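Final report, Chapter 2: Outcomes

The project's central promise was a pipeline that accepts a single protein chain and returns its three-dimensional structure in a standardized token representation, suitable for archiving and comparison. That pipeline is now operational. To close this chapter, we reproduce one record exactly as it appears in the project archive, with the input sequence first and the structure output second.
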Amino acid sequence: MLLRCFLSILLMDCIYKTNRYRMSLLEIVDITSMHLMFLVGFAFISSETHANYVRALENLRSILDGWPKPNVLVTNRELGLINAIEEVFPSSSHLLCSWHINKVVLDKTKKMVGDDEGFARFMDRWTSVLYAKSEALLELRMNDLSCEFGHVKGFTDYLDNTWVKIYKEKLVPAWTNQIMHFGETTT
């Protein structure tokens, strides 16, 4: 019954092979208006492939038969899952989990930036990029980041080509705030 009342946003996260069968667990949760999470469903999958995600999402869609489809799905950047969402729930908006993206970016760039002081400056700059509320502000903040850290080989290319150019519509508030997600941008 909760699902019927709160079926506007679904959060999906895959826990990778932490059980004794070495299978990934795809967990699908929903959230109430009081910000309480509840389990919608889960699926053990042998590998994070497009086909396995499609099968799991088709099972979810069959459960929702006759109900409205979710307006928003929030996931990490698992390419098989992203493609499966586009196939199974094409009318739903898809957002990327800002926490997961931030963690991946920070883990990768800490090695590139080096010292703690430089890394702290980078974190401030990256956070300002990640939370830009307009396209012009995003460009300005990316330019600031490039000016300060452009000397680090591959640094701005990584950020621009792996994250900002490809996923800004799923990650940056300038675009995501055009979708009613009630502030739910993390899984």
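Archive annotation: The longest helix spans residues 155-171.
This record, like all others produced under the grant, will remain available to the consortium after the project formally closes.
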